[in-house]
């Protein structure tokens, strides 16, 4: 991948704007769905988990949103990355634009949605009188950055893979559901019996969510070994994604 030039930055900005606006095109409420969707899911899982199952989690709304925001960022970014090249084939067939820009643009547009959901999280924390654990709360950016790095690596690989095999998009629908139930988003991990709990804790998305909750929800420093593991895994996936992308990007146009 070539170094980012001024024209590439302009193209990246335009792609982010296009992807962000097109997501809510023809929708009456538009970008408000970024706030309404997690609110409705929060209300649903509060009723199901707290009332029907009789589980009592302190400030369930904040607990749930900490996990749901990251889960949505992860799954939506991967899904958008899969269409980043094939969805812009008309542009790629006409211009020599750097192909990775389209993948990065897709991920950044979803990151904007994530930032909007974070505003909702802060509002809910105020409403529910949650404790803002200063200054440790600012460290919550660490797992978010590491997850972003991982997403870029996965996005680069899957954008190429979907050019060759479009069935991967259908498979991702099932895999994303598995991630939702295996990341302890709406339930505490301690209700899962061993040895299944140990298997679930191998999920890197769970690492990011758990570390984010430590900083935001609990006001504690997460296990540094887990942070280092997430850092190393994210860097490995990013490097592998770049290698795969560079190897196959030259044949992308011929596969459309």
Structure description:
- With 256 residues, the protein is an all-alpha fold.
- The chain has one domain.
- Helices cover 71% and strands 0% of the residues.
- It is built from eleven helices and no strands.
- The model has no long low-confidence stretch (mean pLDDT 88).
State the main characteristics.
256 residues, mainly alpha, 11 helices, 71% helix, globular
Number of domains: 1
- For this structure, the quaternary state is single chain
Gross geometry: globular
Element pattern in H and E? HHHHHHHHHHH
Number of strands: 0
Radius of gyration: 19 Å
Strand content: under 5%
How many angstroms does the end-to-end distance come to? 21 Å
Derived from helix and strand composition plus strand pairing, the structural class reads mainly alpha
Largest sheet: none
What percent of residues adopt helix (DSSP H or I)?
Answer: over 70%
Indicate the mean pLDDT.
88
* Residue runs with pLDDT of under 50 for 5 or more positions: none
Total helices: the number is 11
Secondary structure blueprint with pairings:
Blueprint: H1 6-22, H2 33-52, H3 60-82, H4 89-94, H5 100-127, H6 141-164, H7 167-181, H8 196-200, H9 204-218, H10 224-248, H11 252-255
Helix pairs in contact: 1-5, 2-3, 2-5, 3-5, 3-6, 3-7, 3-9, 5-6, 6-9, 6-10, 9-10
